[in-house]
Amino acid sequence: MIVAQLKRATACACVLSGLMLAQAAFALDLAGVKIDETAKVGNQDLKLNGAGIRYKVIFKVYTAALYLTEKKTTVPDVMAANGPRRIELVMLRDVSSEDFSRAFMTGIQNNVDKADKAKIINQLLKFGELFASIPELKKGDVLTTDWIPGVGTQIHFNGKPVSETLPDQVFYNSLLKIWLGDKPADSRLKPLLLGQPA
Q: 77-116: b or e for each residue (b if 16 or more CB lie within 10 Å)?
């Protein structure tokens, strides 16, 4: 009797600890998307810096999550952060690649100065080309953009590489400015990526 009770108690404890571990792996749930607490980039574990939903008017377009080696709460600190970085987008609706590409390029146009754009023009062209291979981004699709020091920017769509490595850190920072620049894609999302209240 006592042995049976001990076995049941042990089983319950195992189930509870398993549930707690599963919950601990996710930092939050945004519109049904589980945002991981950590991400591995370039063999290094990164921490979730912040996450939120990108809205266009009233429509939810995608979730965005920023991962860094350590928490940063200002744009200059994020841009100057050492080590790998990741921005991960999970689509919340279907969007044509043409519309998505146009939104990215508009974000760069609005937030990156002429001198930096001139430095990365070839990388911007290659970045634009990658969307030609993706006719449409569908709800649930995942786009990750990683910066790996000494390697460059690597872009994956649903876990598969969709572009050659783009070497310049100015390019990666230009991408980050789409969400963190002076004229961000969504002013409500910017503070959330910085780990601040909206």
A: ebeebeebbbbbbbbbeebeeeebbeebeebbeebbeeeb
